[in-house]
Amino acid sequence: MGKNKTTKGIILGVIKKKPVYLVALILMVISVVVFSLLPPQILKIIIDDYLLGTSTGLAKIGVIYLITFLLIGVFDFIKGFMLTIAGQKIIKEIRFAMKEKMGKIKATYFTHNGTGQVSSIFINDVDNINTLFTDGVISMAIDLFKIIGIIISIWFFNYKLGIFALCLIPIVALITSIFRKKMFHSQTRNLLEVGKVNNHIGETIRNMIMIKTFNKEAYMEGRYKEYLEDNYKTMDRVNFYDSCFSPVIQMMTAISIATVFYFASEGDNYLGISIGMVAAATNLITNLFAPIDSLGMELSSIQKGLSGVESVDDFLAAEEDVFKDQLATEELNHLGKGEMVFKDVHFSYDDGPEILKGLNLVINPGEKISFVGRTGAGKSTLFKLMVGLLVPTKGEITYNGIPVWRILNSEKRRLFGYVEQNFSFVKASVLEQITLFDEDISYSQVESVLDFVGLLEYCKGLDNGLLTEADEKLFSEGQKQLLAIARALVTNPPILFLDEVTANLDAVTEDKVVKVLKEAGEGKTILSIAHRTSTIYSSDKVIEVKDGMFYNII
Ligand code: ATP
Ligand code: MG
Predict the structure, then answer these.
(1) CA 379 / ligand 1 centre spacing (Å)
(2) CB-based contacts of 404: which residues, under 8 Å, 6+ apart?
(3) 58-104 and 19-45 are packed helices; what angle lies between their axes, rounded to 10 degrees?
(4) Whether the predicted model's global pTM rises above the 0.70 cut
């Protein structure tokens, strides 16, 4: 097993490959900070030396003043562009690493973590890591440098002004953070309400026929109105804070500037600064508010980004299949005749109650066993344990003496044929529904297995034969069940698992499926979960799962 990749390792790897890029980026960041400190200084010179003083060439220095702004824009653009490119490169590498991990990760990971959870790591968490580059760490560094630079610049004019500017920082930070928090709360509540409205629309459309049949239009409309009203209420709060924030900050700026003016004029220039310095200081103080405000947002992006890093790292560190000691099916088949043994098997999901409580059983090759039991007894759980998707909390299930969960996932298909109750289509051709992109399975193998289940003629008659894009609507329930059987049988596995395969079928189709299964089962071990007797009668043994134990019925 290789060492697990980490987000940090991936980022460092990308940086190491392009050190020049990193240096250029740092240069751009420094340029943005330094150049944004220049305009107030030039303004001071313009006022003191050119407007009030005797220096000539105002137009020239005016042009320089404009050019600095132009350069700030250019550097800022290049910095943003470089960060986006670097961020995308890193995100691409992270996505590759995650895809690679996906193939190695233990199947049990996916029984413990739902689809939503896993896809959220792939989509949301990775996106949050991206914001770490685009408006996280670097922007925060720039804003911090800008604040420090502004304070130093003001201090440079006059230390009393410097102290005043320094005192402004915590006040502005406090006001913005209070506003941000309020805005965040009302936005989250608003999103929740928007979600409810959207869900309601979806639900109404999905259930339109039922709503019309049972005359529930008025009820649904009433609920929609309720959700909409709640939505508007929360929206009002969002708008209120949004529109308050700007005037409050502007007022703060005005008060600060007025204070500077007051002390510059009061008591025969108490601060002892020139008019140019007053102009420059007001400019700098105005500029001080924006980065303090941005810091709050950047901090929250960084927090989100870091939690994204944590989730992605957890995923990248998830347990992988144990490759050492693992045996290929051929070797495995040489170890014995194909006997499955349960030795004191206990199982519980996470911290839940014990579902299976000490099962012992020997399944001989070729044996046909039906498992019955009330709903929730643990039959499907039992199958997941038998194919190694779950691992017993105590005890062992072995195939030819090897614990089943240690069999390589890629090898399992040649050993276990799992016929699902609901056939899940992959977005591909009919042929690929059967091969599942396994290149070792030939076209003629697919043809013969489709022939065996009696679907060949139908599939060949489709627009493009076996290469027709498969679709839910192309097949009936019974045909889907036959496809599921073909998918399981195509690798000719010695053990077949059937989880209530005929539960959804009418009597005629069920007879057909049972007949196919009977023929397919010749010489194979067949383990089935059955609710109806039709699938039971072909079994050698019927075992009831009850209170976590096995009871032999026949
Ligand atoms: P049915 O006949 O209805 O299909 P079953 O015998 O197949 O039922 P299982 O699906 O094995 O029953 O479920 C056994 C118990 O385990 C149930 O109480 C169920 O709630 C619980 N269970 C099933 N899957 C999980 C899971 N992923 N996490 C936690 N508990 C689970
Ligand atoms: Mg079940």
Answers:
(1) 8
(2) 340, 385, 386, 387, 388, 397, 398
(3) 150
(4) no
